[in-house]
Specification:
Blueprint (H helix, E strand, L loop, with lengths): L2 H7 L10 E2 L1 H4 L10 E6 L5 E5 L2 H7 L3 H11 L13 E4 L13 E7 L6 E7 L1 H8 L4 E5 L6 E6 L2 E6 L8 H12 L4 E4 L2 H4 L7 E3 L3 E3 L4 H7 L2 E7 L4 E2 L3 H16 L4 H7 L4 H7 L21 H7 E5 L9 E5 L5 E4 L1 H7 L8 H14 L3 H16 L12 H12 L4 H5 L3 H8 L9 E2 L2 E2 L9 H9 L12 H5 L8 H20 L4 H6 L5 H10 L5 H22 L14 H4 L14 H15 L9 H6 L5 H4 L3
Parallel strand pairs: 1-14, 2-7, 8-13
Antiparallel strand pairs: 2-3, 4-5, 4-7, 5-6, 8-9, 10-13, 11-12, 15-16, 16-17, 18-19
Helix pairs in contact: 3-4, 4-24, 9-23, 13-15, 14-16, 19-21, 21-24, 21-26
Bound molecules: tungstopterin and iron/sulfur cluster.
C-alpha cells in the first residue's frame, strides 16, 4: 500500500492544516480571502512570473471557473489549436478553497478543449489546490510546450521545470507514487497517465489515485505540453478578514452536515444510490442510451458495492467522503462513482460490478474520462452490432471492453479512432452512426438518458462545456414535475440551477453538501463575507454566475465564428428518433419541434437571440463590455 494512501486516504475526515492570519497582518499585503496572485509558467522558455489582479476582477469573477473563463477570453487568440503550445492550461482555486470549512478542496482545470473546440473545464478534489493556495497563488497558468517530458515543481515562490523523461509512460498512480517518494506525502500532485501523453481527446487530469477531472480533454492539453505532472508545496497562510469567526462558522457547518438526516446513508453509498433511482426512472443509460432500464441494475448498485467495499475516500477538508473504494476483479482498489458505474456498466451491457471496477480503475490509471470512455465503448459495441467494425465487440463483454480501453490509451487500431471521441468516430465510420453518437458539441453525454425528460435534454444541450450534467442536474426535480412537459417552467428551473451550480465552480468548494445532504446554502455567502470582508448574498453570487455563463457562451461563439446556430444546442438525434423499447415508459422519445420551442423560450429568458447569441443589452447588463465588439454585434 502506498504510504500516502494508507495514512491519508483511509481516514474519514481529511484536513489539510491551514493557518489563517488576521486582517492586521494582511492589511499591507493586499486582498483578503483571495491571494491576489497567479503564477504564469512558460514551458517553452522556462520563464515564470507572478501576475497580480485587481479587487474588481476578483469580485466580478470570484475565482475558479470565473477566473479561468475571463483569462481565456482575454488572452487566448481566436482559432488557437487546443493542442498547440499557444493554448493556455489553467489550474484555478476559489476564494474559499483551502479554508477549514466544508468540502473546500476543489480545483478547476480549464483550457480550450481539443475534444469540442470550445471552452472546457473540470473539477478535481485534490490536496494540490490547498497547497497552491498556501504557496500564495489562486491560479497556475501554464503555456508553451516543454522540449521533453517535464514536471513543474512549485514551492512557494520557487518554480522549477524538471526533467520527467523517467516518468513518461507511467500511469497516473505510478507517477504520483514516484513523486511522493521524492517530495513527501504532503506534496500536492496532479498528473496525467498514458491517455494524456497520447493525446486521447477525452484524457483527464488525475490526483490522489481516484480523483479525476477535466472531461473535455484537459489531460490531452497537458500531454501536448509535455507536462507530466505538477507538484505543489506551500508553507504560507491564508488571509481572512475575520479569521476567528470564519473558523467557527466552518466548524458549525461541519456539525450541520453531520446532523443531516441522510448523512449516514450518503456515507454508506454516496453517489452509487443513483443507480437504482435512475433505473426506476428510465434514465439509466443502457446499451449506448438505447434504453433507460438495465435488467442487471441490482448487480451494479450501491448495495452490490457494499459487498466488495474496502473504504471511503474523499477530497481535502471533507467530512462526507463519498468515494466508495472497492476491490475490483483483479484484486486492486477502485474508487467508484455513479457516473463511472453507469457508463462502464449498464451503458455497455456489463452487469458485474467487480469487472466494471477494473475498467474504472483503468480509466483512472490511464487518465481517461470514464464518462466519455463508457460512451465510446458503447458506441463501438453498437457499431459492431451494425457490422461497421472489422473486429467484433459484443455487448457486455468485459474482455473486449478492457482490450479497447488499452487500445484507446495507446491509440492502437480501432482504439485510435475511438480516442477522438464519438463525434469524430461517427464521421469516420459512417453507416448512420451519427444518429447514436451520444454527444453535444463534441462532449459525450453523461450518465442519464433523456428520451423521457426534455428539461434534462435541454440541460445537456445548453451546458457550457458540452453534454455534462454538472451545471444542471435537474432530473430529480423534472421527474416529479410533469416530466414530459416542454413548458417554460423547465427553462426557468434550468437557468436557476445553472447559476446556482456555477457559483460552486467559482467558490472552489464541492456542491455535494448543498445538493446531496441539504446543507443550508446561506452558509456560502456568509463564508465569503467572513473571508473577504465584503458583503455577499446569493443575488450577488447569481449575477457573477450569469456573467461567467455568458462569457463561456461568448468564447464558444467566438471560436465558431460564422458557424454558430441553435443547432449547436441540440441533444443527440437518438433521443428524437429511437423510442425506448423497454420498461414502464416504453415508446417514449423527445419531440423535435417542441424541443426547438423550449430552446427558444430558454434563449428569451436568458436575453439571447434566436441563434442563442447573447444580445448587446444582456452583455452590457452583465458588464461584459468588450464582448459585443469581438462577436461582431
Ligand atoms: C466530472 C465527472 C464525474 S461527475 C464523474 S463521477 W460524479 C466521473 N469521474 C471520473 C473519475 O472518477 N475517474 C475518471 N477517470 N473519469 C471520471 N469522469 C467523470 O468525471 C467528483 C465529485 C463528483 S463524482 C461529482 S458529480 C461532483 N462534481 C462537482 C463539480 O463538478 N463541481 C463542484 N464544485 N463540486 C463537485 N462535487 C462532486 O465531485 P469533471 P472528483 Mg471530477 C475518479 O471532473 O471533469 O468535472 O467531470 O472530481 O474530485 O473526482 O470529485 O457522479
Ligand atoms: Fe469530494 Fe465527495 Fe467530499 Fe465532495 S462530498 S468534497 S466529491 S469526497
Amino acid at each position: 500500500m502506498h504510504p500516502f494512501g494508507s495514512l491519508v486516504f483511509s481516514t474519514l475526515l481529511f484536513f489539510e492544516e491551514v493557518v489563517i492570519v488576521s486582517e492586521a497582518f494582511y492589511r499591507c499585503h493586499g486582498m483578503l480571502g483571495w491571494n491576489g496572485k497567479f503564477l504564469r509558467a512558460n514551458l517553452s522558455t522556462g520563464a515564470f512570473n507572478t501576475q497580480t489582479y485587481s479587487s474588481s476582477f476578483a469580485s466580478s469573477f470570484i475565482g475558479g471557473r470565473g477566473f479561468a473563463a475571463k483569462f481565456l477570453w482575454d488572452n487566448l487568440p481566436r482559432g488557437t489549436d487546443p493542442l498547440s503550445p499557444q493554448n493556455l492550461l489553467i489550474f484555478a482555486a476559489g476564494p474559499l478553497t483551502g479554508f477549514p470549512l466544508p468540502n473546500s478542496g476543489k480545483l478547476v482545470v480549464a483550457s480550450k478543449s481539443p475534444l469540442t473546440g470550445g471552452y472546457g473545464d473540470g473539477n478535481i478534489g485534490t490536496f494540490a489546490v490547498v497547497q497552491m493556495r498556501k504557496a500564495g497563488y489562486d491560479a497556475i497558468i501554464v503555456e508553451g510546450k516543454a522540449e521533453k517530458p517535464t514536471v513543474l515543481h512549485v514551492k512557494d515562490g520557487a518554480v522549477e521545470f524538471l526533467d520527467a523523461t523517467n516518468l513518461w509512460g507511467l500511469n497516473s498512480f505510478e507517477t504520483e507514487k514516484h513523486l511522493h517518494k521524492t517530495y513527501g506525502r504532503a506534496a500536492g500532485i496532479v498528473s496525467i497517465g498514458q491517455g494524456g501523453e497520447n493525446l486521447v481527446k477525452f484524457a483527464c487530469v488525475v490526483s490522489q489515485e481516484g480523483r479525476a477531472g477535466g472531461r473535455p480533454g484537459m489531460g490531452a492539453v497537458m500531454g501536448s505540453k509535455n507536462l507530466k505532472a505538477i507538484v505543489i508545496e506551500g508553507t504560507g497562510s491564508l488571509s481572512a478578514a475575520h479569521p476567528k469567526e470564519l473558523k467557527e462558522a466552518g466548524a458549525a457547518g461541519y456539525r450541520e452536515i453531520l446532523g443531516r438526516p441522510n448523512y449516514k446513508t450518503w456515507k454508506r453509498i454516496g453517489t452509487l444510490g443513483t443507480v437504482d433511482w435512475a433505473n426506476l426512472n428510465s434514465a439509466l443509460p443502457t446499451c449506448n442510451y438505447r434504453e433507460g432500464i438495465f435488467a442487471q441494475a441490482e448487480n451494479i448498485n450501491g448495495f452490490s458495492a457494499e459487498a466488495i467495499k474496502v473504504s471511503n475516500r474523499g477530497c481535502p477538508n471533507c467530512n462526507m467522503t463519498c468515494g466508495n473504494v472497492v476491490k475490483d476483479a483483479a484484486g486492486k482498489d477502485s474508487e467508484l462513482d455513479y457516473e463511472n458505474v453507469a457508463m462502464l456498466g449498464s451503458n455497455i451491457g456489463l452487469g458485474d460490478l467487480a469487472e466494471v471496477s477494473v475498467l474504472n480503475r483503468l480509466a483512472d490509471e490511464f487518465g481517461l474520462d470514464a464518462i466519455s470512455l463508457g460512451n465510446v465503448l458503447g458506441f463501438a459495441m453498437e457499431a459492431s452490432e451494425n457490422g461497421l467494425t472489422q473486429d467484433k465487440y459484443p455487448w457486455g463483454s468485459f474482455k473486449h471492453a478492457k482490450l479497447l480501453c488499452e487500445d484507446i490509451a495507446y491509440r492502437r487500431g480501432f482504439g485510435d479512432v475511438l480516442a477522438e471521441g464519438v463525434r469524430v468516430a461517427a464521421a469516420k465510420i459512417g453507416g448512420g452512426s451519427a444518429n447514436w453518437a451520444m454527444h453535444v458539441k463534441g462532449l459525450e453525454v453523461s450518465a442519464y438518458t433523456c428520451q423521457t425528460v426534455p428539461g434534462m435534454a435541454l440541460a445537456y444541450g445548453t451546458s457550457p462545456i458540452g453534454a455534462h450534467h454538472k451545471d444542471a442536474w435537474i432530473l430529480a426535480w423534472e421527474t416529479t414535475h410533469d416530466r414530459f412537459s416542454y413548458g417554460e417552467e423547465k427553462a426557468d428551473y434550468l437557468i436557476a440551477t445553472q447559476h446556482a451550480r456555477g457559483v460552486f465552480e467559482c467558490l472552489g468548494v464541492c456542491r455535494f453538501p448543498m445538493v446531496n445532504v441539504g446543507f443550508n446554502r446561506e452558509w456560502y455567502p456568509k463564508y465569503l463575507t467572513l473571508a473577504t470582508g465584503e458583503e455577499y448574498t446569493w443575488d450577488a453570487f447569481n449575477l457573477v454566475a450569469e456573467r461567467v455563463f455568458n462569457l463561456m457562451r461568448a468564447f464558444w461563439i467566438r471560436e465558431h465564428n460564422g458557424e454558430w446556430s441553435s443547432q449547436m444546442d441540440s441533444p443527440p438525434p437518438r433521443w428524437f428518433n429511437d423510442p425506448l423499447t423497454e420498461g414502464p415508459l416504453k415508446g417514449s422519445k423527445l419531440n423535435r419541434q417542441k424541443y426547438a420551442e423550449l430552446l427558444q423560450n430558454y434563449y428569451n429568458k436568458r436575453g439571447w437571440d434566436k441563434n442563442g447569441v447573447p444580445t448587446k443589452e444582456t452583455l452590457k447588463r452583465l458588464g461584459l463590455s468588450d464582448v459585443p465588439l469581438q462577436l461582431g454585434l
